[in-house]
Amino acid sequence: MAGNTSVPGATVVSRALALLFAFDDAHRRLTLSELARRADLPVPTAHRLVGELVAGGALVRRPTGEYVVARRLWQTGLLAPVETGLREIAAPFMNDLHAATRATVHLAVREGTEVLYLERLSGRASVPVVSTVGSRLPLHATGVGKVLLAHAPEDVVEAALARLARVTPYTITQPGRMREQLERIRHDGYATTVEEMTLGACSVAVPISAGDRVIGALGIVVPSLKRDRARLVAALQVAAQGIGRSVG
C-alpha cells in the first residue's frame, strides 16, 4: 500500500504520487479498483486523479481497462542521477563482460532492504532470471544483493536479517548463517548464490567502490560456479575497478 492517503488533509500531490507508487515489479498493470485499493483512496477520487494522470502522459489506459506506466514517466525516471551516471559509465564494461561470458550481467544498487537493478545484459545463451531493469529483489537471495548488504550500515543489515523470506528451497533464511556469509563476503571481496533466487541459476558479484564507499554491485548469473568461479570473479573485479575509477 502506498500510504494512508485517504485521511483528511492529504494533498492532491500525495494522492497522485500514491497512485503512481502503486505500480511495482509485481504490479505492472492495475485496474482502477486495484489502483484505488493499493493507493488507499476512494474509487471516485482515484478515478478523477487517474484521468488527469492519463491526460498528462504519466499513465496509459489499455483496451482491457488496465492502467500502465507511460513511456514518458519511464523516460523521466531515467534522468535520476544514479541512473544516468552509473549506468552510462558501467555500460562499456558490462558489454565487455557479456561478450566474454555470454552470461547475464547485472548492475545494481541498494534501495532500503532491497536490491534495485539499474541494468541487465543477457542473450539467448544466458540463464533465465527473474530480474528486469528497474525491478527490486531481496538483498539476501541475490549475488549483487549480498554484496550490497555486506557493505550496508548495521541498521540495514538488522532490518534485512529480520525478513529473510524463503524464495527457493536453497534460500538462506537463518540470520546467523547469513551474518557469517556477509563477513566472508567482506573478507573475500565477492559474493555467490546457488539457486537461492532462481532454480538453475547461480551468481557471483563484486562491489563497485568509489574511494572508500561502495556505490553499487556488478554481478554475473551462470548455470554453475564449479569451474569458472575464479575466472568470473577476476573479470568482475577488473570491470568494477574500472567503473569505480571512472566514477571517482
UniProtKB/TrEMBL annotation:
SMART domains to which the protein is assigned, alphabetical: HTH_ICLR (SM00346)
Give the keywords, sorted.
Answer: DNA-binding, Transcription, Transcription regulation
Location of the IclR-ED domain: 72-248
Indicate whether Transcription appears among the record's keywords: yes
One Pfam family from the record: HTH_IclR
Q: Which residues form the HTH iclR-type domain?
A: 10-71
Signal peptide interval: none
Classification via InterPro entries: GAF-like_dom_sf (IPR029016), HTH_MetabolicPath_Reg (IPR050707), Tscrpt_reg_IclR_C (IPR014757), Tscrpt_reg_IclR_N (IPR005471), WH-like_DNA-bd_sf (IPR036388), WH_DNA-bd_sf (IPR036390)
- Quote the Gene3D superfamilies the UniProt record gives: 3.30.450.40, Winged helix-like DNA-binding domain superfamily/Winged helix DNA-binding domain
The record's listing under PANTHER family reads:
HELIX-TURN-HELIX TRANSCRIPTIONAL REGULATOR, ICLR FAMILY (PTHR30136), HTH-TYPE TRANSCRIPTIONAL REPRESSOR ALLR (PTHR30136:SF24)
Q: Say yes or no: keyword Transcription regulation present.
A: yes
Give the protein name, as stated in the record. Answer: IclR family transcriptional regulator
